[in-house]
Amino acid sequence: MLFYNVLFLFFLVFSFVTVITRKSNHRFEVLSILVLAFFVAFRDRVGADWSNYVEYYQSGYAPDKLSGNYEPVFMVLRDICYYLHFDYELFFYIISIFTLLCIRYSGRVLNVDNFTLVLFVYICMFFCNFQFNIVRSGAMASCMWVAFSQAAIGRQRCAFIWTLIAAGFHIIAILFIPIVYLIERPYKQKFVFILIALSYTILIFKLGHQLISHVPMLATFDRLDGYIDKDVDGNGITLGSALNLAIFFYMYMKYKKEYYVNRKFRVIVNVLFWGVVICSSLNAFSTIATRAGHVLNMSLIFVWPIILGRLNKKSIRGALYLVLCVYWFMYFNKSVNVEDIFGQSSLVPYQIEIKSIVR
């Protein structure tokens, strides 16, 4: 756990400085991206799917029989690196850099300037949930946020292209195509309350199976259908889902005027809204709810910097930040210590191997 505790404390300290001073250090941001990608790329037997990705890269075959049909971007990048005689670490490093730069770009487009804090929240809440698999799932999620940011500035064609790029890393991105065209619209209060009430009705009365049977897209893609045909139930109403709902209502009600006027702000809030609705409605299918949550709930990495940045008193900002750090640490610690079927965490201990990256 030493590596993860040091990582948390490192970003906690530097994020605290940016929260108090309201000034970002762009050199530190770039250095953080490079260093974080380094630890992702050069890990050794860390992460649930680490061996699968290494085997895939070295063998030239996709990790499952259908990914070659549905994930061309990932395959093309792999082929380029492989035939340039790069070792798998450099391949992972390149994609990790790409992933983190997409997040940084999305934040800048959405006018969320404190990237140090954005990255800190991302590490605590999402980085380990990807089980260090920033290679595919993380790349897909970050590409989707580029798509959302393009929708926020009225570039719908670019948003659609970035959604296809995201699908090139993970096919489940196809499910977000309707979301891309819905998030820039202002929603009336009546619509918001009705949709949330319906989603929680579906959750409480376990109507998810009836709902999903009316989604023809799932029958088109075998891999998407695979996320549904699982005899697994979700976790019901959790503390995290309740908190997300509360945060959404705070942003929606507190800044209602800005919500209707500021398109970029509205997109961030709307993505969180759809995260609440979709994760509640599809809770019966834990896999697909988790996948959707990874993408849509990433709005929190932008929401928290917005909330902290709008507090004028330095003492209040600092106090709220420290309280949030307790929550983030609990979330981070839980993510690191998720146990596999053997009762062990695939992330602990963290191991690193540095060798020649060009064969």
Automatic annotation (TrEMBL):
This is EpsG family protein. It comes from the Bacteria. InterPro entries: EpsG-like. It holds the Pfam family EpsG. It comes from Bacteroides uniformis. Keywords: Membrane, Transmembrane, Transmembrane helix. The chain crosses the membrane at residues 6-21, 90-107, 119-148, 160-184, 191-212, 232-253, 265-285, 291-308, 315-332.
